Amino acid sequence: MHNAVISGTGLYTPPHSISNDELVAAFNAYVGQYNAEHAAAIEAGQMQALAESSAAFIEKASGIQSRYVMDKTGILDPARMKPRLPERSNDEPSILCEMAVNAARQALQRAGREPGDVDAVIVACSNLQRPYPAIAIEVQQALGIQGFAFDMNVACSSATFGIQAAANAVQLGQARAVLVVSPEICTGHLNFRDRDSHFIFGDAATAVLVERDSLAHGEHRLEILGTKLLTQFSNNIRNNFGFLNRAAEEGEGQPDKLFVQEGRKVFREVCPMVADLIAQHLAELQVPVEQVQRFWLHQANLSMNQLIAKKLLGRDAEPQEAPVILDRYANTSSAGSVIALHLNHEDLPAGALGVLSSFGAGYSIGCVVLRKA
Ligand code: CO8
Fold this sequence. Notes:
- It is a single chain.
- This protein is an alpha+beta fold.
- It is about 35% helix and about 20% strand.
- The chain has eleven helices and 13 strands.
- It has helices spanning about 20-35, 40-45, 55-60, 75, 95-110, 135-145, 160-170, 265-285, 300-315, 325-330, 335-345, and strands at about 5-10, 15-20, 65-70, 120-125, 150, 175-185, 205-210, 220-230, 235-240, 260, 290-295, 355-360, 365-370.
- The strands form three sheets. Strands 5-4-6-7-1-8-13-12-11 form a nine-stranded mixed β-sheet, with helices on both faces. A two-stranded antiparallel ribbon has the order 2-3.
- The protein starts with a strand and ends with a strand.
- The protein binds octanoyl-coenzyme A (CO8).
- Octanoyl-coenzyme A binds near residues 58, 264, 300 and 361.
C-alpha cells in the first residue's frame, strides 16, 4: 500500500459574472411580460400572477452575491433565459473538456508534474454533456495522458467521491497519479424562470491531482488521511432529464427536466447528516475536531455552512476556518468545495489538519481528511 496526497489543485473561472441585481432585473422583466400577456386570465382568477424576485432575498437566504457563467447574454435575455452555447463539431474539443483541461493544466503545474506522470483521469461532475465517448477520455487525449479514464456523477459530491476512487487507485499501486476534474456548467440545467431557484448556481471547473506520496513534490501537498462517503436516497433534489425523455412526449419541456428542489427540506435534512459524518470520520481517525484548522465545505448556502461548522465546533466558525466562495461563485455543484480548498490552503503551516466535504443530491455526502505535508 502507498500513501496518497493531493499534490496540486486547479481552477477554471468562466469569463462572465452576473450580479444578483442583473439576474433579478432580467427575471422581473420576464415576470412583467408574462403577467401582461396573461392579464385577462389572471384577472379572472384562472391563472396566478408570477411574483417578482429580489436581490435582497437572494443574499439573505443564500449568501450569494454573484455567479460566474459560460454565457451571460442568453441567461439575461428575458425572452430566452438560458445560456447560448453553440454546438461544436466532433472535431473540436467539447466545452466541458475545454474547461476541464484548463483546470487540469493548473493542477499539474502546481504539482510540478507533466501529463506523462499521470496514469488516469476521472471526470467527476453533476452534468455530463453527452453519455459517450466519456468526457474523461477526451480530456485524457487532450492532455496526452496514457492509461485509463472514466466519467462519474454523484451530483454535488462528485469530486469527493472521485478523490476516494483516485486515492484507492494510488494506494493500491494501480496508478502513480490520478487527475480528478470537475467541470460544471450548472446554468445549462438551471430554470432561470423559477423564482425559488434561479439564483442558486454558477459555472466553474476544478482539478485535483492525487498522487503517490513518495513521488510527489508539489510545494503545497496535502496528505489524504482518510475518505468517508455516505448516500441516502431522496427526491428533494432531482432532475429527470435523460435519454428516455424522447420516449415520453408528455414530459418534454416540463420543469422537472431541469433542476428542482425542496430547498427547506434539503437544508433541514442534510445539515445534521453532514455534521454527523464529519464527526464520525474524525473520531475514526482519532483526530479531535478542535485540531482541524480548516473546513472546506460544499458551497451551496452560507447559513448551511455556518450551521454545520457550529454543530462540529460547538461555536461559530471564524471566517478563515470555513472559507466562503459562494458569495462570488454561487453553487458550482461538485466544484464548490474544491474551489474553497484551491483558494484557501497555501497559507496553512506543515501538519495543519483540514476537512474537505461535499453534500447534495442523492443525498450524497463526502468527507476527505487532509494534513498539510
Ligand atoms: N425572491 C424573493 N422571494 C423569494 C424568492 C426570490 N427569488 N424565492 C423565494 N421567495 C420567497 C418564497 O416564496 C417564500 O415566501 P413565503 O414565506 O411567503 O412562502 C420566502 O421567500 C421563503 O422561501 P424559502 O422558504 O424557499 O426560502 P429559504 O429561506 O429556504 O431559502 C434556499 C431558499 C436558498 C433555496 C435554501 O432553502 C437553501 O439553500 N437550501 C439548501 C439547498 C441546497 O443546498 N441544495 C443543494 C442543491 S445542489 C445539488 O445537490 C447539486 C445538483 C446538481 C447541480 C445541478 C445544476 C443545475
